[in-house]
Amino acid sequence: MTTETDDGTPTGVRALADDYVRRLADLDTRVATSLGTHPGDDRVPDLSPDGQQAIDDLANTVLAGLPTAAVAGEDDRRCARLLRERLEAQLAVSDAGEHLRQVRNIFGPHQQVRQLFELMPTVTADDWAVVARRMAKVPQAYAGYIASLTEGSRRGLHAAPRQVETAVGQLDAWFADPRGSWFHGFVADAPEDIAPAVRTALDEAAGAAATAATELRDHLAGVYLPAAQGTPDAVGAERYRLGARLSTGSDLDLADAYEWGWDEFRRLDEEMRREADTIVPGAGPIAVMRHLDENGEAVDGVEEIRVWLQKMMDTAMDELAGTHFDIPAPVRTVEAMIAPSGSAAAPYYTRPSLDFSRPGRTWLPTLGATRFPLWGLVSTWYHEGVPGHHLQLAQWAHLADQLSTFQTTIGSVSGNTEGWALYAERLADELGYLTLPGTRLGYLDAQQMRAIRVVIDIGMHLQLEVPANSPVHAGKTWTPEVAREFFGAFCGRPSAFLDSEIVRYLGWPGQAISYKLGERAWLAGRDAARAARGADFDLKSWHAAALSLGSLGLDDLTDELARL
Description:
InterPro entries: DUF885
Protein name: DUF885 domain-containing protein
Organism: Pseudonocardia alaniniphila
Structural class: mainly alpha
């Protein structure tokens, strides 16, 4: 039962959680834009220290109200546990000053500002007028970001030079557009018949945003980078545990996770060798993947691969609906997109707005390529799209008014969502979807990449020694260079992708391990539910129940799944 204080403040746990989301969206336009809750929102995020302090103050207020919030039923119980765990994890990261040195190559502050525009509606003249007003405020956002980096520098908190140099390179890439910058290219897509005043406002706003991006780039390269010299890539055990908790929702046994990652690496290495032998006997996995690059099926053209991926997701949606999943009508739409230049190498997914006026979207970074071998893309799109991220996160959006908005949106835990997406790749293999030549080897390579992530992410940040029984680099201490060579020896992804991944792991400690450890939790939960139900276990029903739980951390995920 939900109760209220005399001033009308909600005290039931679901009401408290939903009120937190509303108030956070009022504070942080990144949340509001992602959820689609503030039509006409032309704000930019406050990336200054004061902006983070306001977010932290709200989190502390909500935590203070949680002990007296009424809990009614299992959904409320899960909501209360999630709310406490997420807010405490976020506050711990903030208390460590991580926002004052946040520079990374994926979903970093410089990219978060740009991504706001990718999520905005651009259908009507009024939509474009809002774009113009928001874009004109980009200088304000980047000024706040520079203020945070400056405060971090004053405290001796710096990002490693590798992260800064990568961000500078990404910002340079934003200006590869012949129209002047990414911002100029974005507003150039406004309709030709748009009102002259709006066109003028868009052009002026693009110029202001481009100037601000240049100033950010120059600050990073000319002021911040010299001050950051000597900052190590490895963050150490204390900072790593904070990051791992934020990404997994669990206080992990890192030694156990590291050893399990090695076990998975060895298991997958053997399976990849067997699979490679079915394609080119005796050649070995890496040689076979290079063979597939040259001789396997491929799609030529950027637009052509976008259309191909769209068709693949539409087909999976049609075939899985009613057989292995219950898929509500709003969830049936997902869009394949090409990621803008200056993105990291990894594909990604953006979730739909709560009202589904903006659909879920998958994004493919091309890295300048115009030919796309399919052997390594197919399982990735089962991961990003259907039955992966889209089915889970769009289903959560569909259930936002039945659970809580917090459980189905900003309370997400990477270990849960990325674990589901890896489970979805495995499910596609189990259901016989990997029939295109080479695509099963591509799936195993994707699994191997995630196993290697566990090993090298923990190994680099904790500066562990490579075990004596490692096939390469035995006895060496993990460094970015050792990790990159290891990656290249056992993963078939392109060199530019692997280079980008190493930078990503170093700049986002603890996130890379959430994929494989999350999949482990999903599989353990499914196995336990199957064992408990025996002949009565129905996979379609289990999927429906599992995707209706909302977000859970890895401390709870397996046990909750086992009960279904």
